[in-house]
Amino acid sequence: MKLVFPGSFDPITEGHMEIIARAAAMAAQLYVVVEDNMQKKYCFTREQRIRMVKAAVAELGNVVVDTFDGLTVDYCRSVGADAIVRGLRNQTDYLYEKDIAAFNRELAGVETLFLLSAGAHAHISSSAVRELMKYNSDLTGYVPAAVRDIINENFDNA
Questions:
Q1: Rounded percentage of the chain residues whose pLDDT exceeds 90
Q2: Measured between alpha carbons, how far is 112 from 102 in angstroms, rounded to an integer?
Q3: How far apart are CA 74 and CA 69, in angstroms?
Q4: Of 5, 85, 132, 144, which has the fewest CB atoms closer than 10 Å, so is most exposed?
Q5: pTM above 0.85, yes or no
Q6: What are the E-state strand segments in the chain?
Q7: Which of the residues 51, 121, 126, 148 is marked catalytic?
Q8: CB count, 10 Å around CB of 106?
């Protein structure tokens, strides 16, 4: 089975990694696709986000990191993916994601698999990590070590 896990990953977190590891265990191939959301202002460039995601998933042999401009369902078609994977931390995520899943199924017949975040990672979001970065807080436990190193090496406010 081929799965696609799209996101902005600004930056990639331990919560993302939990979903990636679980999805990779289910799939022959998992595509982690770094995308831009027109409604978001980014802390990191797309290239920086791709670098961080690649560093974070380096040990997972069946994970491909990619980027795409356009609808996620079009990307799914281009790689022959069976479904989109989305992580759910809470009710708010569910209410948001269920509508997008319905749209993707209606537009292109692409299903969405929802994976519930484990309790230890349910509170971690990229925006919370960016807030920690703003105040030079330790990112240990919130982002993968390789990502923390990249942030610490390259960004003044980390």
A1: 88
A2: 9
A3: 9
A4: 132
A5: yes
A6: 2-7, 29-34, 63-67, 83-88, 111-116
A7: 126
A8: 10
Q: Closest Cα to residue 139, out of 41, 150, 66, 81?
A: 150
- Do residues 43 and 16 touch, judged by C-beta distance below 8 A? no
Phi, psi (degrees; rounded to nearest 5) at 17: -65, -35
Residue-wise pLDDT for 38-63, tens only, equals: 888 999 999 999 999 999 999 999 99
Domain boundaries, the chain: 2-154
Measured CA angle at 89 (ends 69, 17), to 5 deg: 60
112 neighbors 105 (Cβ within 8 angstroms) = yes
Backbone angles phi, psi at 92, to 5 degrees: -60, -45
The pair of structure tokens assigned to 145 is: 């070590």
**Which tokens sit at 89?**
């931390």
Query: Which is nearest to 33 in space by CA: 54, 55, 13?
Result: 54
User: Which listed residue (2, 89, 98, 105) is catalytic?
Assistant: 89
First CA to last CA across the chain, in angstroms? 38
Is 89 in the active site? yes
Q: Is 137 annotated in the active site?
A: no
Class of domain 2-154: alpha beta
